[in-house]
Design a protein that fits this description.
This protein is an alpha/beta fold. About 35% of the residues lie in helices and about 20% in strands. The protein has a single domain (about 10-300), classed as Vaccinia Virus protein VP39 (Rossmann fold), CATH 3.40.50. Bound molecules: S-adenosylmethionine.
């Protein structure tokens, strides 16, 4: 895997630190108790998904859309990106354990995509499953010469992203950025389009880089179409920060991905879509029950 990214442990740790409530010692009893409880709940969910499917409706595209229409809501609310948020999760990074908010991992995901853009210098970049559009807008302010587009399944996400683009970027988002922002108006040039990854509304080879951040995770039901479409519209590289099977081998993590019907491709599945992995890393904080890592692949 020859591509290397110029991002080091110190930069990653600095991006993570503001989201951390505390580090947890190995063998901590509360932590172990919570993990055991989670494990039981997730195994039950995986069992019900497999054997009592009428109880479960997830994994279908219409349901994913309904869920996210609700998650994104009717109004732009970027307070979920406030680093002072007290919500805490069980997160591991290598051998270390933390109670951080989910923003720590999300900032690190952005740092990795930024490092990739530094390495590849793409002209046109697409985010598939762009949600509220904050990734693409912050990256646009970091790299004003790059043309960014986001494609998103929900009407609410697409609309909120377009409304946000039309005004100065909210301060809470600027503070959330894990890198310096060099052009405060560049987010206005990001294109936001409503559409599905199953049938991307773009010409073949339209983008030098196509990336996803925990969006394929919702697309297990349309996985082959989504990967084929990403490969089709890409003419250079794809980057996916997703729960590849390679990072979800433990019983706890398998129960999570199976129970929730989440993306479960392995890195080794990518060549079937004309994508050759050139870099992969799991060096990032992840929920204890859910492994997410970065895979960069070249279209060949
Ligand atoms: C967990 S959110 C991540 C959003 C964004 N990438 C981020 O990092 O904040 C997943 C997003 O993928 C979108 N999504 C799910 N299925 C999709 C599909 N078939 N096509 C396009 N977007 C989709 C959802 O609507 C949601 O906005």
């Amino acid at each position: 895997m020859p591509l290397s990214l110029a991002v080091n442990r110190e930069q990653l740790a600095a991006a993570f630190a503001p989201a951390v409530h505390r580090e947890v010692a190995a063998g901590d009893r509360d932590w172990s108790k919570t993990v055991r409880r989670l494990h039981l709940a997730l195994r039950w969910k995986a069992f019900a998904t497999r054997w009592l499917p009428w109880l479960e409706r997830r994994g279908q595209s219409a349901t994913v859309r309904e869920t996210y229409e609700e998650v994104w809501g009717a109004q732009a609310d970027f307070h979920k990106f406030d680093l002072a948020k007290r919500e805490k999760q069980l997160v591991v990074w290598g051998e270390r354990q933390f109670y951080p908010s989910q923003l720590g991992a999300k900032r690190i995901h952005l740092l990795y995509i930024a490092a990739l853009i530094e390495a590849l210098r793409p002209g046109r970049v697409l985010e598939v499953g762009s949600g509220l559009g904050q990734n693409a807008m912050l990256l646009a302010q970091r790299f004003p010469d790059v043309q960014f587009t986001g494609v998103e399944l929900t009407a609410q996400g697409t609309r909120i992203a377009a409304v946000t683009r039309a005004a100065p970027l909210p301060e809470v988002l600027q503070r959330y950025a894990p890198f310096p922002l060099s052009d405060a108006s560049a987010h206005a040039r990001v294109g936001f389009v409503r559409g599905s990854a199953a049938q991307l509304p773009f010409a073949s080879s339209a983008f030098d880089l196509v990336y996803t951040v925990q969006a394929l995770e919702q697309m297990e039901a349309i996985r082959p179409q989504a990967l084929s479409e990403i490969a089709r519209v890409c003419r250079g590289h794809t980057a996916m920060i997703e729960p590849f099977r390679d990072w979800n081998q433990t019983s706890l993590r398998r129960a999570k991905t199976q129970g929730w019907g989440l993306f479960s491709a392995a890195i080794a599945d990518l060549p079937a879509f004309g994508l050759t992995a050139v870099h992969s890393t799991g060096d990032m904080p992840m929920k204890v029950y859910y492994g997410v890592g970065l895979v960069v692949a070249e279209k060949r």
